[in-house]
Design goal:
The structure is a homodimer.
Chain A lengths: L24 H14 L8 E2 L1 H8 L3 H13 L3 E2 L6 E3 L4 H25 L2 H19 L3 H19 L2 H21 L3 H19 L3 H26 L1
Antiparallel strand pairs in A: 1-3, 2-3
Helix pairs in contact in A: 1-3, 4-6, 4-7, 4-9, 5-6, 5-8, 6-7, 7-9, 8-9
The first copy, chain A, binds a DNA duplex through helix 3.
Chain lengths: 234, 234
DNA sequence: AACACCAGTCTTGTATACAAGAATTGATTT
DNA sequence: AAATCAATTCTTGTATACAAGACTGGTGTT
C-alpha cells in the first residue's frame, strides 16, 4: 500500500552525495511544478489532479497541495473550488497588461539600481552578460535563459528595495513563462541580446533615466512576438 | 479530544443567512490571516505557531498551513524552514521603500487612466473631489479618508489593467494604514488636498505625464510626516 | 429517441497520526 | 558559579484516513 514516497525523484536517498537538506518537500514540489509549467510540460488549461502529481513528484498530497497554493498565489494556476486546479491561461490581452506593469516595475528597479550600484557589482553584471552572449552564440537556450533571469534578478536586488523586490517576485513567474515562449523566435532572441548590451552600457554609466527607458522598451519589444505566438497555439 | 473545528469562528452555522458555501476553509483562513496582519492584530515580527492559529481560527492545521503558503507568496509572512512563520517586518525605512513603489504604481495607473478616461468618469471624479473638499472644510476626517481612498481606487479601475489592479490591491492596505496616520497632521492634510485638486486638473485635461509626476510627488510628500510619526510609536 | 434520475466512481477538502528537527530546561562537570 | 551536554518538550513536515462534493455511465420513463 504505502509505496508512494519511498523512492520518488524528490526523495533524498541516504547516500545522497549532494548533502541536500531534508524537509521542505513542498518548496521543492513548488519549484518542480513551476518549471513544469514554464517548460510547457504542463500546458495552459491542463487539469492537475493531485494524486497524479503525487506519483510524478514522489510525495504525498500534503506537500503537493501546499505547493499548489503557493504557485496559485503566483498566478501560475487557478484554484477552482472543489474542482481540479488548472494551469492558468495566457491570453494575449492579459499579456500586454502584464508587460506594461512589469516593464514599469523593472524600470523603477533600474533607476534605483543606477543610484546604488558599486563598481564590483557592475563587473559582476558584465561577467553575466558575457556568459549570456556566449550561450547565445552556441544557441544553448536553457542556460541563456537562466543567465538572463539572473541579470534581471541581480538588478532588482541591487535596487535594494524590499517592497519592489516582493512585487517583482510576484510577477516574475508569469513573465518568465511568457519569455520562454518569446525567445523561441530566433530573430527576437538576437534583438533581445542587443538590447541587453545597450542596457548594460546605461547601467555601467549609471544613467538611470536611460536604463529605465531601455528596460520598458525591452519588454514592449518582446510583446508582439509573444502575442503572435499565443494566437497560433491557443 | 476532537473539539477543534466544530464551532470555530470560520464554521458556518446552519442559520447563516448569507448562504456561504462550505469548503474552502483554507481560503477563508487566508482572508482572516490577511486582515489580522493588516489591522495590526498580528504585528510585524510576530511568530505564528500553527496550532495556536488553529485554535483562533477553529480549523485544523492542514488549511492553516495552506493559507500560510498563500499569504507567504503574497509577501505578508516569511517562511523560515523548519522554524515558525513570522509576520514580515515593515519599519520606517521600509516605509520609504513602500511609498516609492506605490507612488510609481499609481503613476502608471494615472498615465493609463488619462488615456482611457471618459467625460462621464471625469465628472464622477470631479464630484468625488468636491465631496472630499467639503469634508475637509468640515474637518470630518473619516469620511474624507473614505472619499480619498475611493478616488485613488477609481483611478486605478479606470486604468483598466487587471495586473496593475492586483498589484495595487496588494500594496494598498499597508499604504492605507500609513496614510491614516499621516493625515493626523493638519498641515499635511491641507497640503494633500491641494495636491489632489492639481491632480484632478491634470486628469481632466488628460495630461498623463503631468499626472504621473504629481502622483509620485503626492506620495513622497506624505512620507516625512509618516516617518516622524513612526519613530515615536515603534 | 431523448431526457431525467440514480448509483458508483473519482477528486478534492479536512482532520489526525506520526516522525523528525529545533528549542529549552535542568543537571552535571569543571 | 559558569558552561556544556543531555533529555524533555515543542513545533514543523509529511503521510494517510475519512468525508463530502462533482463527474460518469447506465437505466428507466415518457
Amino acid at each position: 500500500m504505502g509505496k508512494t514516497a519511498e523512492n520518488g525523484p524528490l526523495a533524498n536517498e541516504p547516500g545522497d552525495s549532494l548533502g541536500r537538506k531534508k524537509g521542505q518537500l513542498h518548496a521543492e514540489a513548488a519549484g518542480k511544478l513551476r518549471s513544469m509549467i514554464l517548460s510547457g510540460e504542463l500546458p495552459p488549461g491542463e487539469r492537475l489532479r493531485e494524486v497524479q502529481l503525487c506519483e510524478q513528484l514522489g510525495v504525498s498530497r500534503t506537500p503537493v497541495r501546499e505547493a499548489l497554493r503557493t504557485i496559485a498565489a503566483e498566478g501560475l494556476v487557478d484554484l477552482l473550488p472543489n474542482r481540479s486546479v488548472v494551469v492558468s491561461e495566457l491570453h494575449a490581452p492579459d499579456l500586454e497588461h502584464l508587460f506594461v506593469v512589469f516593464g514599469a516595475i523593472e524600470g523603477i528597479a533600474a533607476e534605483l539600481a543606477c543610484q546604488k550600484i558599486t563598481e564590483a557589482e557592475i563587473g559582476e553584471i558584465g561577467r553575466l552578460l558575457a556568459e549570456m552572449i556566449d550561450f547565445h552564440t552556441r544557441k544553448e537556450r536553457a542556460p541563456y535563459m537562466q543567465i538572463n533571469q539572473k541579470i534581471h534578478q541581480r538588478t532588482v536586488e541591487i535596487a535594494a528595495n524590499p517592497v519592489l523586490h516582493t512585487v517583482w517576485q510576484s510577477l516574475v513567474p508569469r513573465v518568465e513563462r511568457a519569455r520562454a515562449l518569446a525567445n523561441l523566435d530566433t530573430g527576437r532572441w538576437t534583438g533581445a541580446l542587443f538590447e541587453h548590451t545597450k542596457m548594460f552600457t546605461a547601467l555601467a554609466s549609471r544613467d538611470g533615466q536611460l536604463l529605465a527607458k531601455l528596460t520598458r522598451e525591452h519588454f514592449l519589444n518582446s510583446l508582439p512576438f509573444l502575442q503572435s505566438r499565443l494566437e497560433n497555439d491557443d
